[in-house]
Amino acid sequence: VQLQASGGGLVLAGGSLRLSCAASGHSFSSYSMAWFRQAPGKERELVAEINFFGSSHVEASVKDRFAISRDNKKKTVYLQMNSLKPDDTAVYYCAGQKIANKYTYWGQGTQVTVSS
User: Fold this and answer.
1) Taking residues 28-39, what's their average pLDDT?
2) How would residue 105 be classed by pLDDT, with cut points 50, 70 and 90?
């Protein structure tokens, strides 16, 4: 399974971006998928995850502004980010197949930079 993240870029504070993560392979619809991010000098952190039923969890720090969704026909998971803040600046990674609370597959990351 390969994951290809896209959609990052430079945006002004208050703006929006939608990240996409396209997956290869035949079992996408059975995987839990997630978005993580890693800011400079900080550890990687979970942003949101969604299971194969479509039930999602978004971390409290971004819950009012971010949303995760998936399209199993397109084998793609999305992260809609609204009202972006400079603190959201990070490399965003998609991940797939959660086993024993760890994700097996990782995308290459996409840079999100929010300027004030």
Assistant:
1) 93
2) very high
Residues in the chain: 116
Residue 34: closest CA among 99, 114, 111, 112: 99
Q: Enumerate the H helices of 41-112 as residue ranges.
A: none
Residues 6+ apart with CB under 8 A from 60: none
Longest dimension (CA), the chain: 42
What is the band of 29 on the pLDDT scale with cuts at 50, 70, 90? confident
First-residue to last-residue Cα distance in the chain: 37
Residue pair 39/89 in contact (Cβ under 8 Å)? The answer is yes
